[in-house]
């Protein structure tokens, strides 16, 4: 979240700069000073030659003072020219860096991740050259996200750690939400790498840090809280919900279903309170909790919950409605309601094709194969039952 805020801040500055100026700053001023420097340098050489040929001729005091002033002006002009050139070069690099970041963002939006990675690598070089720590942090975090999506987990880990080290060195507190968000991503990486101890430690650090912050914020009288503090409280709670959701998925993958259920219930309560009953994330959490209940054999509880999520998602036009339908079909399959399961699987399949969600298509097709398998088993069992 803090990282996206940095993105908006950085890019808004970029847009503002490109709208307000047609190109690099100081160009006209630098050109003028360089031209003056050339003229004065030529004058300086002429004076030196002239003085050498008239070495024995006494000079008037006023003329000597005038020459000193002229030389001082020439020296200042040359010095100013160098300083302006440095500022001009720094501005050029900053403008180029911002343009590269905008190109990277557009490439990410289009799903062109290799191109985005290339733009970000170029941008971070310029960020280092201009000693722009904010740009370094932002670019490293974006590079880490791109690497993670591409499955480059080792690279993503190193980049997240690099971004965090710059933030901590710059005085960012260890419990800052941006630090915790990156720590959560590291914990998720360790979970995918089957580094159980590191993953558990990372999830614990994130949840405990956020819970401590929220307890501290509770101590402030409600009437004394500013709008900014209230926004921070909400952001912190939603980040805690995200941490619990991530840890629940990890615990479900390791079949710690009771612990996963507890995390899902807490995450759902947070999301419901902060974002409302029909928010897309609330409905996804309801469906995920239903799946955990189903895995524990609590099919009736699961069916009630997932049906509620599907009905609400239909009413609000949830973007992942087809995913929730597939979950409903799966739970119906486990309860033995094969006809209803097929009906909802077919509806989910059609919507998944329309959405271009290949992962959902594959999952639904696996569900339909399971239905066929169940039906074959039931047919084989019928003659045996009739014979008895």
Automatic annotation (TrEMBL):
Sorted UniProt keywords: Mitochondrion, Repeat, TPR repeat, Transit peptide
Any one Gene Ontology cellular component term annotated for this protein: mitochondrial inner membrane
Origin: domain of life: Eukaryota
Region described as Disordered: 369-388
Entry keyword annotation includes Repeat: yes
InterPro entries named among the record's database cross-references: TPR-like_helical_dom_sf, TPR_rpt, TTC19
Family listed: Belongs to the TTC19 family.
Name used for this protein in its record: Tetratricopeptide repeat protein 19, mitochondrial
């Amino acid at each position: 979240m803090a990282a996206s805020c940095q993105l908006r801040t950085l890019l808004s500055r970029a847009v503002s700069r490109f709208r307000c100026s047609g190109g690099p700053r100081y160009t006209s001023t630098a050109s003028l000073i360089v031209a003056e420097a050339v003229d004065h340098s030529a004058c300086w050489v002429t004076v030196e030659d002239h003085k050498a040929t008239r070495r024995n001729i006494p000079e008037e005091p006023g003329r000597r003072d005038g020459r000193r002033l002229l030389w001082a002006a020439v020296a200042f002009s040359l010095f100013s020219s160098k300083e302006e050139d440095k500022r001009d070069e720094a501005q050029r690099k900053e403008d180029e860096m911002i343009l590269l970041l905008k190109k990277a963002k557009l490439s990410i939006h289009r799903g062109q991740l290799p191109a985005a990675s290339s733009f970000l690598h170029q941008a971070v070089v310029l960020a280092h050259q201009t000693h722009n720590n904010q740009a370094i942090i932002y670019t490293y975090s974006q590079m880490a996200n791109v690497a993670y999506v591409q499955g480059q987990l080792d690279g993503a880990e190193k980049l997240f750690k690099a971004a965090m080290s710059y933030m901590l060195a710059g005085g960012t507190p260890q419990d800052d939400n941006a630090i915790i968000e990156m720590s959560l991503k590291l914990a998720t990486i360790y979970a995918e790498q089957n580094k159980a101890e590191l993953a558990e430690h990372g999830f614990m650090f994130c949840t405990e840090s956020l819970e401590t912050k929220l307890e501290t914020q509770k101590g402030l009288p409600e009437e004394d809280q500013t709008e900014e503090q209230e926004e921070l409280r909400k952001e912190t709670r939603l980040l805690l919900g995200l941490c619990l959701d991530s840890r629940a998925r990890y615990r479900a993958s390791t079949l710690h279903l009771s612990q996963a259920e507890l995390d899902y219930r807490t995450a759902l309560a947070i999301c419901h309170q902060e974002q409302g009953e029909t928010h897309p994330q609330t409905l996804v959490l309801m469906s995920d909790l239903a799946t955990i209940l189903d895995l524990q054999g609590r099919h009736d509880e699961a069916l009630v919950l997932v049906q509620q999520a599907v009905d609400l998602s239909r009413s609000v036009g949830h973007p992942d409605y087809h995913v929730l339908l597939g979950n409903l079909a799966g739970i119906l399959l486990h309860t033995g309601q094969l006809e209803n399961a097929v009906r909802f699987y077919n509806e989910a399949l059609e919507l998944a094709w329309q959405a271009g969600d290949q992962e959902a298509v594959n999952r639904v097709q696996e569900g339909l194969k399971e239905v066929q398998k169940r039906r074959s088993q039931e047919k084989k069992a019928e003659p045996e039952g009739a014979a008895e």
